[in-house]
Amino acid sequence: MNDRSRWVKVCLAVTVLFGTACDVDPESGETPGELGEGVFRYECVDGRDVACNGSAIASTFPTAVATNSSFDLAYDPFDTTSAGSAFVIEPVAEKLVSPSGDAFRAHAAGTTAFLARQTADGALIDFVHLRVENVSSLSVVADDGSSLSTKLTAGEEALLVATALGADDAALAGSMKYTWTTSDDAVLSLGLVSEGREMEIVAESPGSAELRVESGGVSRTLTFTVEP
Amino acid sequence: MKRRFLLVACVLFLGCSSSKKSEPAFDHFEYSEISVAPGTADLQEKSVLLAEGVAVKAVVKAIDERGHTMSSLDIESGDPNVVGVEHGPEGSFVFYGSSAGSTELHVLSNETRVGSVSAQVIPE
Longest Cα pair distance anywhere in chain B, in angstroms? Predict the structure, then answer.
């Protein structure tokens, strides 16, 4: 057992005993496998995943992903001489999460383990659990994180960011499609052709218009007032 | 002479048969070093209950009817689509619930099936 493996096992014991989170490297989206043989790494399939903030690898390993979202996992063993270096990761309960191309697709709420197997002989090396949650609500804020003003001046533009939230109002990981619509293009138009989390809005002329964003079967409607 | 030969052969046969000890039967499992699972993972002496999607690691001993640990333990799922069971590190086993249903886990000692325990996976 190398030093890193030993450290992770101590870390896992601390997690079990004291219930505190103990990630291997919180800055790289990694979490220790539950057999203590390596680390699982969360990876985003595109820029729509809140977990990665535009990068390919998550900043932290998420606590939950959204239903009907896509994501990927990778595995790095501590000791490649005994565990090998090529792995296939498979979900235990395909009713909840199934392979989809080179990634995974979450279908239903629940918790499923993911098994890391050696590609060569299929031997089980490690596993990790990940929760899948239904989207409960959507938050919409300005792109700088500030609260959103729904009063705009004609000609003004604003960049908005939507985030899917779970039951505890925590952001849910996973790449999802966001559908943006406006009730009156003449008052408030969409500045981007996008199905992502970000949307630019343009205040065209005085009046009132509703901006609607839908994702994960949940929608959020904001009423904007455009002043001269 | 022929009768004497038959008598000796019979005694030898019975002697061999009576000296051959039958292996004690499997009685129950004992578990240690059970990992923490984020859902139902109830490992009992003669049954295993898991929630769908949950995996749990444990070091498992098979105990025979005389209370002795059985050697060279292996465990096989009667239906891997319901419950998976595989070797983990350092003599442990990993049990996982693939889909809701019931089956048996077959207990093997020295590559011989010596018994079974029930296994059930409940919906998440």
Answer: 76
Mean pLDDT score across all residues of chain A: 88
Shortest distance between the Cα of B12 and any Cα of chain A, in A, equals 48
Q: Is this complex's ipTM strictly greater than 0.90?
A: no
Cβ-contact A198, A93 below 8 angstroms: no
- Cβ contact B87–A124 (<8 Å): yes
Please give the structure tokens belonging to residue A207. Answer: 């009046």
Confidence of residue A145 (pLDDT cuts 50, 70, 90): confident
Residue A18 host element (H or E): helix A3-18
A16 and chain B in contact, CB less than 8 A: yes
B30 to chain A, closest Cα gap in Å = 20
Q: Are A208 and A223 in contact (CB under 8 A)?
A: yes
Each residue's pLDDT tens digit, A46-75: 999 999 987 888 989 999 999 999 999 999
pLDDT, residue A53, reads: 81
User: How close is the nearest chain A Cα to the Cα of B58, in Å?
Assistant: 10
Give dist(CA B4, CA B89) in Å, integer. Answer: 59
* Residue B55 forms contact with A (CB below 8 Å): yes
Q: Which residues of A touch B97 (CB under 8 A)?
A: 92-93
pTM for the whole structure: 0.84
Name residue A137's beta-bridge partners. Answer: A165
Q: Record the tokens describing residue B46, joined without a space.
A: 């003669």
| Tens of pLDDT, residues A72-85 | 999 999 987 777 77
Low-confidence ranges of chain B (pLDDT < 50): 1, 6-8, 10-20
Alpha carbon distance B119, A78 (integer Å)? 33
Tell me if chain B has a CB within 8 Å of the CB of A184: no
Does B94 sit within 8 Å of A110, measured CB to CB? no
What strands lie across the sheet with A188-190, from one edge to the other? A137-142, A157-165, A198-203, A188-190
Cross-chain CB nearest to B55 (options A15, A95, A113): A113
Local structure of residue B89 (DSSP, 8 states): G
Q: Which residues, listed in sequence order, are joined to residue A129 by a DSSP beta bridge? A: A113
